[in-house]
Design brief:
The chain is of the alpha+beta class. About 25% of the residues lie in helices and about 25% in strands.
Length: about 55
């Protein structure tokens, strides 16, 4: 299983713990093949909209 962490709304944490520190991640570590982290990208939609207008 792959885990996707989306940081669009901020850091993926609870009570100061990262995903890797959560019990669910620790208890299922054998099933988790990898973690993909999508970093927050500010203004990407505004840039796309501006590009469309200029076309």
């Amino acid at each position: 299983m792959m885990v996707w962490l989306n940081h669009y709304w901020g850091r993926v944490e609870t009570q100061g713990k990262t995903f890797e520190q959560w019990n669910i991640a620790k208890n299922n570590a054998e099933q988790i093949a990898g973690v993909i982290e999508q970093l927050a990208v500010q203004g990407i939609f505004a840039a796309l909209e501006g590009g469309r207008r200029g076309s």
